[in-house]
Amino acid sequence: MKAMIDFFRTMLKMPKPWLVWLTFLMAANMVGPVVFIKTPEACIVILAAMAGAAIQIAIFRSKGFVRLLGIGHLPWVPLVLWLWSRLEQLPQEGFFRFWVLSVIFLNTLSLIIDATDVFRYISGDREPLITI
């Protein structure tokens, strides 16, 4: 529990533009699913978010707030692919479709950022981005 609290406290020290980005990601992956909780899409999104958070907190506890944290979003790879494959079965209009498309878009962008960060970490950029 302490690692989780420390992780979120450290996240709050990120520069403002990154906090705005995280707000959109969290809204799409944690608030959106609550609105649509009776759908399989929402349940899978929330499971992927929880799995990712668990991975990130484990990395944070071990290494600190480093670029390797991007690995925590690996559960989003199958999530994004699955949501994309579901688009034909979803309503063609409305807030639910907008939310699903938002998750696909935001998580895909995040995965690109994460891949860059993990590559930089592997390449030797291992200094913590933020310290407690």
Keywords:
elongated, 132 residues, 70% helix, mainly alpha
Concise summary:
The protein has 132 residues and is mainly α. It has five helices and no strands.
Largest pleated sheet: none
Silhouette? elongated
Mean pLDDT across every amino acid position: 96
Helix proportion of residues, in percent? over 70%
Q: What structural class results from the helix and strand content? A: mainly alpha
Number of strands: 0
How many structural domains in the coordinates? Answer: 1
* Poorly predicted spans: none
Rounded to the nearest angstrom, the radius of gyration is: 15 Å
Distance between the termini: 16 Å
User: What's the number of helices?
Assistant: 5
Proportion in β-strands: under 5%
Order of helices and strands: HHHHH
Q: Can you describe what's shown?
A:
- The chain has 132 residues and is mostly helical.
- It has one domain (2-122).
- It is 70% helix and 0% strand.
- Helix 2 packs across helix 5 (95-122) and helix 4 runs antiparallel to helix 5 (95-122).
- The longest helix has 28 residues, at 95-122.
- The protein is elongated, with a radius of gyration of 15 Å.
- The chain starts with a helix and ends in a 10-residue tail after the last helix.
- 24% of the residues are buried.
Outline the secondary-structure elements.
Elements: H1 2-11, H2 16-35, H3 40-63, H4 76-86, H5 95-122
Helix pairs in contact: 2-3, 2-5, 4-5
